[in-house]
Write a structure and sequence with these properties.
The structure is a single chain. By secondary structure, the protein is of the alpha+beta class. The chain folds into 6 domains: 76 residues, Helix Hairpins (Orthogonal Bundle), CATH 1.10.287; 232 residues, 2-Layer Sandwich (D-amino Acid Aminotransferase, Chain A, domain 1); 88 residues, Nucleic acid-binding proteins (OB fold (Dihydrolipoamide Acetyltransferase, E2P)); 78 residues, 5' to 3' exonuclease, C-terminal subdomain (DNA polymerase, domain 1, Orthogonal Bundle); 82 residues, 5' to 3' exonuclease, C-terminal subdomain (DNA polymerase, domain 1, Orthogonal Bundle); 73 residues, BRCT domain (Rossmann fold). Helices cover 35% and strands 18% of the residues. The strands form 7 sheets. The chain has a 5-stranded mixed sheet with strand order 2-13-10-3-9. A 5-stranded antiparallel sheet has the order 16-15-14-17-18. Strands 5-4-7-8 form a 4-stranded antiparallel sheet. The protein is globular, with a radius of gyration of 28 Å. The structure holds 2-(butylsulfanyl)adenosine (IVH).
Amino acid sequence: MSDAEDSAPSETPIAALTPRKAKAEHKLLAAEVQAANDAYFQDDQPIMDDAAYDAKRRRLVALEEAFPALKQESDVSAKVGARPSGKFAKIRHRVPMLSLDNAFSDEAVAEFAARVYRFLGRKEEEGGIAFTAEPKIDGLSLSLRYEKGELVAAATRGDGEEGEDVTLNARTISEIPGRLAGPDVPEIAEVRGEVYLGHADFAGINERQREKGLPEFANPRNAAAGSLRQLDVSVTAARPLRFFAYAWGEMPVLPAPTQFGVVEAFRRWGFRTNPLMKRCESVAELIAQYRLIESQRATLGYDIDGVVYKVDDLALQARLGFVSRAPRWAIAHKFPAELATTVLEAIDIQVGRTGALSPVARLKPVTVGGVVVTNATLHNEDYIRGFDSKGLPIRDGTDIRIGDTVTVKRAGDVIPRVEAVDLAKRPADSKPYEFPTLCPACGSHATRELNPRSGKEDAIRRCTGGLICPAQTVERLKHFVSRDALDIDGLGDKQIEFFHSDPELPVREPADIFTLAKRDAANLKKLKDKEGFGAVSARKLFDAIEDRRSPPLNRFIFGLGIRHIGETTARLLARHYGSFEALRAAGIAAADEASPERQELDAIDSVGPTVVEALIAFFGEPHNEELLDRLLVQVSPQPLEAVAAASPVAGKIVVFTGALERMTRDEAKAMAERLGAKVAGSVSSKTDLLVAGPGAGSKLKDAAKHGVEVIDEAGWFDLVGAGAAG
Ligand code: IVH
C-alpha cells in the first residue's frame, strides 16, 4: 500500500540514530524485506510494490553502511530481488478464463463421465462420447489474441474475468508465434495455453540467482510467473519460458468441430501442443492414458500435476456448458498428494467470519512437493482427538499433540493437512491438546451447536460473541471487500486490519468503508501521513472505493457473508429477485412459514432449506437490518445485466415437467437460465410458463388452476429459437 514518495520506513536521518536505535530499526527492516522476498519468490504473492520494497532495501543498506556491525545480523541486504511490478494494465477477457473441477480418484473420473452422459440424456452403456486426455501443465495460463494472424494482445488469467496485459513480455517468448501461418487461421483467434519453465532451465535460473546472491524461486511455476510478470521486458526475454497451446477464448470461426481437431490446427499454425494428448473412447482408455502420463512424469522435463479430460465434440461441449466457474465438459484428474514428515510446534486457533474456531498446525518448515509448508489444517477438535464427523475413530483413534512428529499431506492447491502421527516419536511428557471453549479473540463462550435435524453436535465450535467479536467483524469486512465480492483494489486483508484498529479512521462495518474519504478530509491526522500510506496511495484507495458504489447485485449479496450463500447461490438470488430491496423484503416476510414469500423462496430451484433458513436468520437479526440501512445509504447494488435481454423468456418463471425428448431436465434448466429465465420446481400463481412433456401430471392441474400458460417441448424450442440450444 506504499508509494515511492512515502515508503521510507523511517523519517529519522541515519546520522541522528544511536547504535541501539539503528539496531532495532535494522532488525525490523530485515524481517520485512525477508518477508517480502519470501512472499515474492516462494509464494509468488508479492506483499508490497516495487517502490516500497526498494525504499526499504535502500534504508537497510544505508543503515549497514553507517553501522557496519549490523552486517553480521542478517544477510538479506546482500540479496537484491528483481521483482515484477503490480502495475500492468488490465485486459478484460472477452470470454472468461475458467478453472477446472478436480477428480482425485478413478471413481471420480467415472462419475464425471457418467454425469456427462446423464446431462446429455445418453446411455453410457451405448458409449459414443469421445474424450481427450492430456497432461495438466503446472505453469500459468495465458490468453493470446491474434487479429488477422498477428499477435495483438497477451493477458494473464487474473481473476478469470480480467487479467494483466503482458503483451510485450509474451512477444519475447520464442514458442509464442508473433504471426500465425496457414489458410485456416481465423480473422480473430484467441489461443490459450500454459506458460511454463523446464526443469533444467529452472535450475539454471536459480543458479544465477544464487551467484548474484538473490533469493531463489521455490518451484518452476513461481519462477515462470515471476519471469512473465516483469515490467522490464528484458528480464522476461532472458528467461527461457515455454508455451503449450490447449484451449481458446474468442474464436468465432473454429478450424475443426472437435477439441482434438482445434489443437491439431494450433500445431499447424505454429504452436507447440502436447504430444501426450490422446483421443479416448471410454473411461478405461482415459485411465490408461492417465497411467501412461503418470509413468512418464519424472522424465518429461517439466512439471505436470495431473491429466485433463475434455469432451471432444465441441457441439456437445456447448450443450454441456458451465457450472459456476468450471465447464461441465472437462475435469482435471490430479496426481496423488505428496507427503512429508515434520514436527508440530504449536496449535493456533483462528476465528473465522462465521465464528468458527479453526485449529491451525504450526509446523517446523518442511518441503512438500517443492513447496515449503509451515502451516497445515487440523480441521476441528474431533479430528485432533482422533474421530471423524460420524464419531468413528481415525488414525486408529490416535490424537494429535503439540510436539508430535506428524505426516503432512499436500494435494495440489489444497491447504496442506496433518494426516498421521508417529507415536514412537511422541515426547514422554506430552499431553492431549485441550481445545479452547472460550473464543481466543473476544473471550465469549465457544459452543458446538446441535443440528436440529440430525440431533448431533456440529463438528465446528463457534464463538457466540457474534457482533462483539472483533475477529468475526474483521473477517466479515475482509470478505466484503474480497475479490469475488466488492473487489476493492488496494483494500486487502492487511488494510482492513489496519483500519479496523485505527483510532482516527475506524472501519467497523461495511458502510464505514464508503465514508472513509469524507472522514479523512475532516480529520486532522490524514491517512496520507500514516505508516504505509502516502498521498498517492490514499488517493488511489479512495478512488477505488468510490468506484464500487454501484456493485453488481450478486457480488453485493455474496459480500454480505450470509451463511451458506456462496457465489453461485448469490447469483441465483440476484437473478431471481432482481433488486436487493426485493430480496430483503422476501427474506423478512419469509420468516412466516405460511407467507407467499416463503413459498416462492422454497420453490426456487437449487435453493434448499439450509439457504432459506440462513436468509431468514440474517434478515431477522435487527443488527443486520441497521447495518444494511447504513450501508444502502452508501451503495446501490446494480441488477445483473440481462443474460439475454432479447430472449423471450428473460425474467420469466418457468417450470419443466413430464418427459423431455430433445434435452435432459438439467440441460433444459441450464438453457432456460442462460436465457435469463428463472426455473422453479413447482407451479404457483407467479409461474409464467409450464413446459410439459408426455406424462405430465399434477403440475398441469396446478397450471390450469393458476391460469399459467402451458407449452410442449417443441413449443419451447419455437419460443426460444433453435439457436438457443448452443
Ligand atoms: S483446459 C475451460 N487444459 O489448469 C478450461 N487447462 O485448473 C480451460 N491447465 O487455468 C482449461 N494444463 O491454467 C486446460 N491441458 C490443460 C491444462 C490446463 C494446465 C491449467 C490452466 C487452468 C487450470 C485449471
